[in-house]
Amino acid sequence: MASDPNAPLRVGLVLLGAPPPGAPHSEGGYVAMFGTLLGPHGIELEGIDARAGELPADPAAYDGYVLTGSATSVYDDEPWIAPAEELVRGIVAAGIPVAGICFGHQLLAQALGGRVEKAEAGWGMGVHAYDLDLPDGPPSMRLQAMHQDQVVALPEGARVWARSAHCPIAGFTVGDRVWTVQAHPEFTAGFAGGLIERRRAIVGDELADAAAATLADPTDHELVATWIAAVLRLGPAAAAEVTERAAAEVLAVEVQ
User: Annotated catalytic, 221?
Assistant: First the structure.
């Protein structure tokens, strides 16, 4: 595993879903979307299609892993979910860094003994604000959300680092190698807007309009990308230090 912050890191992007056909800002699928997010931080991604059973026999084949989102629920009876959970447990047992995004966040929770259910609060869509529990880090962040399931019970030893009124477990860590977030740092406003419109008939005009109205709001996806890169190299503790330094740099610019 590379500890040099400038050294390229070979990371398996476990594809647990795909953008809807024809969705705006989705050319190249999740490999391109996450590549845009993480590429500037020296992360070299290789797509691994879990739904097609293309899972590495040895988790140590990669320096780290990122688990993507999906339109599927982790508790659905899909034949590829159990093998994906086995891979996740193998990654964690081997001490290899892993970051879970949305479905990936939920899959990590379920695979490690937590529980995922449909949210009583309903769909989360658009830009959401999250309260953060970080040592000396920023108190909040804003990211694109798109989910109706939530983690409702944590795995043993997990610690919540992000929460909101709508999503009390919006991100957690387990030890120094597992990091998750329910929201989507890889989403652009254009892609999120397309998903909102596709789901308008499901969620209703009131929620869709309210979510669409947030799309112009700024998000902290670049800061979270820095965090994910630090997680993959050195673990969540290092990411917290990166976040603290970034917040201090922003404050210094504002003071000038």
Answer: no
